[in-house]
Write a structure and sequence with these properties.
The structure holds two protein chains of two kinds. Chain A is of the alpha+beta class. Chain A has two helices and three strands, in the order βαβαβ. The longest helix of chain A is centred in the C-terminal third of the chain and has 16 residues. Chain B has five helices and eleven strands, in the order βαββαβαββββαβββα. In chain B, the strands form two sheets. Chain B has a nine-stranded mixed beta sheet with strand order 2-1-3-4-11-10-9-6-7, with helices on both faces. A two-stranded antiparallel sheet of chain B has the order 5-8. The two termini of chain B are 22 Å apart. The chains are: A alpha+beta, B alpha/beta. Chains A and B meet through helix 1 of A and loops of B.
Chain lengths: 82, 244
């Protein structure tokens, strides 16, 4: 079975996100003064072949932990669907 | 002492390091390819250098993909057996990603790619790379990076301070460590660190770019000299033990 993982990797909430900060000033220049906090992360999709959803879940978990995010500065969350 | 310089796809300071070691300092250098799986013929008093650059285009995160290059397992084993490993700039980022050094290099707080000469001050003489450095001197060394903002959690930072794992801090030309001298928002002006065992070193500044008068800056040569002289002393100790 082929599963699709939809992964979000985001900077930890307590850390400064310089990209987000830059985008806030860009939004102000666009006239959207209401924008207060912008956080920028990554959205990653993986097509993964696995016998069961549980196995697919474990593999994606390992990918997130070991390569796709660095937990010193980021957190991740994902959903899996077939 | 022998040096191994690892070339990853996207490394761009590899030949600067090789030139300094081979031509300026007359050291033996072996060029290593990221696909090599072993470090043949290296002893613990030797040093593997991960040079600066943009390994794998800095895709995903700086150093994140290089960390899984085939040679890294051998580099990790070498470090764990006590061998010297030095990561400069992108090499430092790779060592953090590989878990050989604690913490992470985040995007610069000021959002800029910063490329200029800065001053750094060694914290102590208790490591191979700082052993012969002058603690009262502000060393002028260039930096060139967008992700040099060192971060580690407070608990780990206090452990690192206690263990003497902070090697270098950004300072002004009079050796004052202050906010004005901090080029990228890095924690406590940290420019370089080491592991608890003090055989793995990571630094954002580029000493290899400051080694000859023709470059207008020679302070960087002292870092390599310190390392070579320290390793030389280990070699003498090993010989003494063998002869005893």
């Amino acid at each position: 079975m082929i599963y699709t993982a939809e992964i979000n990797v985001m900077p930890l909430k307590e850390l400064l996100d310089p990209q987000g900060k830059a985008v806030v000033s860009g939004l102000k220049n666009l006239g959207i003064n209401e924008a207060k906090d912008v956080r920028i992360g990554k959205h990653i999709t993986i097509q993964i072949e696995a016998e069961t959803e549980k196995i697919a879940n474990e593999k994606v978990e390992t990918a997130c932990k070991k390569l796709l995010s660095n937990q010193v500065m980021e957190y991740y969350e994902f959903t899996l669907h077939s | 002492m022998k040096f191994g310089v690892v070339i990853f796809p996207g490394s761009n300071c590899d030949h600067d390091v090789i030139h300094v070691l081979e031509t300026v300092l007359q050291q033996e250098v072996k060029i290593l390819w990221h696909k090599d799986k072993e470090l043949k013929g290296f002893e613990p008093q030797d040093c593997i250098i991960l040079p600066g650059g943009f390994s794998y285009g800095d895709y995903l995160r700086s150093g994140a993909i290089a960390r899984f290059s085939p040679i890294m397992d051998a580099v990790i084993s070498f470090a764990n057996s006590g061998g010297f490993v030095l990561g400069i700039c992108n090499g430092f980022q790779i060592l953090c990603e590989a878990g050989l050094l604690p913490g992470v290099l985040m995007r610069n707080g000021n959002r800029n790619f910063v490329c200029k000469n800065v001053f750094i001050k060694p914290s102590h003489n208790d490591s191979a790379i700082t052993a012969d450095l002058d603690l009262n001197k502000a060393y002028k060394i260039p930096i060139a990076h967008a992700e040099g903002n060192y971060y580690v959690d407070a608990k780990q930072l206090s452990r690192m301070n206690e263990n003497g794992q902070i090697l270098f801090r950004y300072c002004d030309e009079n050796s004052n460590v202050n906010d004005v001298a901090n080029p990228n928002g890095t924690l406590e002006n940290i420019a370089g660190i080491t592991n608890a065992r003090k055989n793995v070193f990571g630094m954002m500044p580029h000493p290899e770019r400051a080694t000859e008068s023709v470059l207008g800056n020679v302070d960087g040569i002292e870092f390599f000299r310190s390392l070579i002289s320290y390793a030389g002393k280990i070699e003498i100790d090993v010989m003494d033990d063998l002869l005893r």
